[in-house]
Amino acid sequence: MTATARNTTARRTSTARVITRAILPLAATIAALGGSIALAGGALAGTTPTAPAAPAKPAPNCTVDAKLVPSCNILWGAAAGGFSDTPRDEALRTWEQKSGRTASVYHTYHRGDEMFPTKDEIAMAREAGKPRILFTNWKVGYGAKWADVAKGKQDARIDKLAKYIKANYTDTFFMAIHHEPENDVSTNTGSGMTAKDYAAMYRHTVQRMRANGVTNVVFVMAYMNVEKWNNSSWWKDLYPGNDVVDWVGVDSYVNSQPNGYHYGDFNNLMNRTTDKNVFPGWYNWALTTGKPIMVAEWGMYECRTKCSPAEKAKLYGTVLQQLKAMPAIKAMVYFDTASDQQGLDMRIDSTRESLTAFRKVAADPIFNVRVR
């Protein structure tokens, strides 16, 4: 999903778990091993779906801490209605009904001088019987260069939002600062848009928010997962530093078209690489930060040309089994749209088989987390 395409929608801007389930000693062993269980690449074969879908009640023993990290299991959420005029809250409720599970994370997008969380977003977060954690993306430098933000030229914008948050919303929520920056990086010295300029912009924004007394925001660094960027010499310069990053996130997609671009399973979605010696795979890299990992956007494209309706269902069928090898993933947030900027369909119900397979994923108790 490119940054340019996101600017065409009303709320959309630019393109961790350690399972410590007390009843499963094996899972505790996996958690203790941490990064040693990381996947080596992105080409493992998928497995088939298992249990039938059925909404599950939150497990009372899985809760979130001050940084929204679940004590066990994985947060489950979505950004629904992408690239459409459907209000995001309406789209999410429809998506929840289709998937069979209430989202614990509600993902929205903002830019520039927009004030958020909005009243509608707050209402969704505090809905009786269906509490949700807000996850907002903010393009603070909208209309400006990253270097200018870092120099304080957008401090009035940052200060205004900080004041708004303190006055209107005290619950803890996620915020990604200018997600997917790779597509916007310039390698030209003095452009104000280098990878190092991005890191400086991110640092300045977080530090100023904190200096303004904002204590309820959990900051997310959200990457793309495109090999040409991951292999770039400047890619590592994007990281702003562990002191200003609470979670690391990735926006990543796979294609269900056999032999198509990024055709693959969940391993491919998280850990693809053209050369492990150049880039070890995004999940493997993320482990080195020591931060909880969020799949901040994920999805599976329907076939562009005619193929078996079982193809996409087969890929959904790899998710649960392959997640077991990625214990640092603590949150998964689906991106659902009928047509992205390339006209590709990422709806969970693009076919009957797709929806059946997705509901089996959603129904798994690994996503039971009590957020309030």
How would you characterize the overall build of this protein?
- This protein has helices spanning 3-6, 25-33, 88-99, 119-125, 146-150, 155-168, 195-211, 227-230, 266-271, 282-287, 310-316, 319-323, 352-362; strands spanning 75-80, 105-111, 133-139, 173-177, 217-224, 247-255, 293-301, 329-336.
- It is an alpha/beta fold.
- Strands 1-2-3-4-5-6-7-8 form an eight-stranded parallel barrel, surrounded by four helices.
- The longest helix is centred in the middle third of the chain and has 17 residues, at 195-211.
- It is globular, with a radius of gyration of 19 Å.
- The chain starts with a helix and ends in a 10-residue tail after the last helix.
Summarize the model shown:
The protein has 372 residues and is of the alpha/beta class. It is built from 13 helices and eight strands. It has one domain: TIM Barrel.
